[in-house]
């Protein structure tokens, strides 16, 4: 299904050598071990966990400990951390490294969710240069030989861009790569990503790989982003929702080993069913796994001849046997529908004025009130 062939491209992130310059973007509630395994089976690259909050990790919260588990087929193991406190972030990194729980650690500075930015976390944090520097420096030091990367947005809004400073600081701090989701927090997921910012970051950060992220819906888009921006690799999020085999197309486009699929409705139904089964295995609970797969229904069957009633039944089924009965009623020979199955999927939304702590934008240093607000920004649950 890929339309572009490029010469074989690999990507090195610290000690990790990837056969293709492709990363599955961390997505809360999506990129658990079940989905990562499925994506990895088709292609090459790095497959990142959903975000894990540093406090929940150091407190060994039971849900968090489940979220950081990897299947034995998952190498290298990659975990994304969300933290706002330098000491807690350092402790979380140290724990992952000392206990040999990850081969790659990513730090999330891109979250635009109001409950996070209101306290100065996520995409709001790099505005405070000293705090950002301290977190990244301590984390990179604690990571030792395990490559640590940073994922960020362009900034808070068009008047408060942070990515060039943050990229240079991260480079100085010893991180192994930086990834840019080329939107501001204010943009949320709206409009189109500004790939020219990825090119600008590539010019500013010269000694480590720069990865581009935003609006890759096909392998052709990935090749185009690399050609247009000069970035060293791509991070793919929403484009693979409901089609983990996109990683096969991506690997093919970059000349790596891959599995090519003929995405008939029968194929999609089997992949959906397998995803459900892997979720049941992950949650160790059939009802829970079957409820979790419901959010994937519209993505898997986008563009396929599946009627509204059937979609509604799939979105309410509560056992694997029930899914089998419903899937058996589909026209399994229906071919891949082409354009109808392509294009944008997942979150879009509208721009929003970011919620921020009082007087956050007045200075790039923290004041006392902000320091205490930020201590509170440490979420106590993961994957939020
Ligand atoms: C459902 C969902 C959950 C997300 N969760 C995270 C997350 O946990 N950590 C993170 O850094 N980014 C998260 N993101 C952002 C993505 O990693 C990515 O940066 C964004 O979707 C833009 O890439 P795309 O256009 O390829 O989707 C999430 C995005 C979505 C749609």
What can you see in these coordinates?
The two termini are 33 Å apart. The protein has two domains: 11-259 and 348-376, Aldolase class I (TIM Barrel, Alpha-Beta Barrel), CATH 3.20.20.70; 265-335, Non-ribosomal Peptide Synthetase Peptidyl Carrier Protein, Chain A (Orthogonal Bundle). 52% of the residues are buried. It is of the alpha/beta class. It has helices spanning 33-42, 54-58, 62-67, 86-98, 114-117, 129-143, 163-173, 195-204, 219-229, 246-253, 265-283, 286-293, 297-300, 308-314, 320-327, 368-375, and strands spanning 11-13, 16-18, 22-24, 46-53, 78-82, 104-109, 148-157, 160-161, 177-184, 210-213, 233-236. Helix 1 (33-42) runs antiparallel to helix 11. The longest helix has 19 residues, at 265-283. The protein is globular. The strands form two sheets. An eight-stranded parallel beta barrel has the order 3-4-5-6-7-9-10-11, surrounded by seven helices. The chain binds flavin mononucleotide.
Structural class: alpha/beta
Strand order of the largest sheet: 3-4-5-6-7-9-10-11
User: Based on CA inertia axes, which overall geometry fits?
Assistant: globular
Report the order of strands and helices: EEEHEHHEHEHHEEHEHEHEHHHHHHH
Give the beta-strand count.
Answer: 11
- pLDDT below 50 for ≥5 consecutive residues: which ranges? none
Ligands bound here?
A: flavin mononucleotide
CATH class division of the largest domain = Alpha Beta
CATH topology of the largest domain: TIM Barrel
Q: Which percent range fits the helix content?
A: 25-40%
CATH architecture of the largest domain: Alpha-Beta Barrel
Radius of gyration: 20 Å
- Proportion of β residues? 5-15%
């Amino acid at each position: 299904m890929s339309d572009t062939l490029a010469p074989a491209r690999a990507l090195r992130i610290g000690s990790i050598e990837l056969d293709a310059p492709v990363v599955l973007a961390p997505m809360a509630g999506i990129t658990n071990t079940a989905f990562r395994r499925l994506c990895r089976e088709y292609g090459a690259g790095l497959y990142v966990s959903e975000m894990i909050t540093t406090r929940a990790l150091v407190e060994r919260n039971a849900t968090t400990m489940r979220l950081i588990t990897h299947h034995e087929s998952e190498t290298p193991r990659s975990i994304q951390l969300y933290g706002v406190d330098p000491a807690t972030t350092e402790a979380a990194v140290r724990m992952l490294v000392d206990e040999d729980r990850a081969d790659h650690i990513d730090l999330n500075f891109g979250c635009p969710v109001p409950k996070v930015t209101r306290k100065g976390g996520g995409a709001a944090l790099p505005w405070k240069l000293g705090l950002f520097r301290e977190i990244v420096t301590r984390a990179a030091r604690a990571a030792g030989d395990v490559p640590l990367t940073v994922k960020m947005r362009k900034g808070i809004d068009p008047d408060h861009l942070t990515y060039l400073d943050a990229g240079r600081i991260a480079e100085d701090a010893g991180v192994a790569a930086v990834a840019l989701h080329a939107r501001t927090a204010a943009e949320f997921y709206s409009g189109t990503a500004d790939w020219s910012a990825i090119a600008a970051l590539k010019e500013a950060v010269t000694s480590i790989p720069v990865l581009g992220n935003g609006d890759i819906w096909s392998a052709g888009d990935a090749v185009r982003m690399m050609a247009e921006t000069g970035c060293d690799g791509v991070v793919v999020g929403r484009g693979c929702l409901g089609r983990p085999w996109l990683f096969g197309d991506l690997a093919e486009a970059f000349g790596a080993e891959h599995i090519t699929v003929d995405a008939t409705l029968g194929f999609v139904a089997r992949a959906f069913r397998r995803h459900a089964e892997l979720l049941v295995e992950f949650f160790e609970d059939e009802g829970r796994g079957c409820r979790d797969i419901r959010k994937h229904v519209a993505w898997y069957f986008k563009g396929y001849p599946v009627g509204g009633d059937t979609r509604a039944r799939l979105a309410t089924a509560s056992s694997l046997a029930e899914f089998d009965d419903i899937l058996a009623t589909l026209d399994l020979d229906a071919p891949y529908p082409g354009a109808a199955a392509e294009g944008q999927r997942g979150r879009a939304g509208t721009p929003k004025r970011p919620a921020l702590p009082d007087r956050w934008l007045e200075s790039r240093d923290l004041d006392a009130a902000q320091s205490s607000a930020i201590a509170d920004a440490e979420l106590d649950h993961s994957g939020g």
